Amino acid sequence: MQLKGIDYIEFYVGNARQTNHFYRTAFGFKPIGYAGLETGFRESSSFVLEQSDIRFVVTSAIVPDSLIAKHVNLHGDGVYDIALLVDDASATFKKAVERGAKPILEPTMIEGHEGYIVKATIASYSKDLVHSFIERNTYSGFSPHYLPIPNTISVTPTGLTEIDHIVINVNLGKMDEWVDFYSSVMNFHQLQEFTSDDISTQYSSLTSKVLQNSKGQIKFPINQPAQGTRKSQIQEYLDFHHGPGVQHIALKTNNIIETVRQLRANGVEFLHTPDAYYDTLQQRIGKIDEDLKVLKDLNILIDRDSHGYLLQIFTKPLTDRPTIFFEIIQRKGAQGFGNGNFKALFEAVEREQEARGNL
Ligand code: FE2
Description:
Helix content is 25%, strand content 36%. With 359 residues, it is an alpha+beta fold.
């Protein structure tokens, strides 16, 4: 499978117009395209937003009897499609279906005056999370079905550059079936595994396997809950999302301090990190370039592996349900996912889970 990277992530939401506004004003994404009644879409409305190499599509239903409305009704606002860039959408689709993928959209040519794209879609292990294969050829816009949004809207970028990884939460006992899907259908391989000993707190626990495509541009850590004395945060997600789905999207920055300052100024809320986390940090991670006091003030977490270190922070859920959130990450050599921070993070998450009465 010649997967070249993530082309875009499509969210199904209750109100695409307002979600578009949120990602613009809070996260600094630039709206570049629109599809809806004015472009011949009778049942849905979509906005495309961009920041460096990250592209989001937010879509909502404008009629009651729609699969989009059903998806949002069941799962809340969240990710429907992780679309992947390929050279040949038809060939990739055919190969995936031969290997057992469930077809959702046969290869379809989307044509306009200035060229065409080809889109084909398969279900992931869950039919409510899909993967489109997007073939762009020479077409330079997002899609011929979209109207470009004039360049007059003011947007202040927040320094987010690309998608680092996307984490999927799955039901207890289903991890290996998901791993099998990505290995056998998509040719991914397993990069790392974290057991419940690596990732547990006094209360809750999870296991995680990291899958990536052959060239490493696409990374999907997959989490399943594990038995703890209280409810795992993965189980809380599954209860409110009503099934498996995307838990978080990690967005890269080259300057996490500036990015987090800007996001905070825009009103983005982050998980609180206990002060005690920073007391023992120096011993755990050694020397770093950043001022520890600044990192502590901004609640940024740090972790180290044999290749270097990374800085990361997690937003609060982006929706009313305690489901999807973003991670902001800056890598300084480290290739991991901050597993040394899992415990610190989870304790922070659990304080919030307790406040919601779900621990
Ligand atoms: Fe992550």
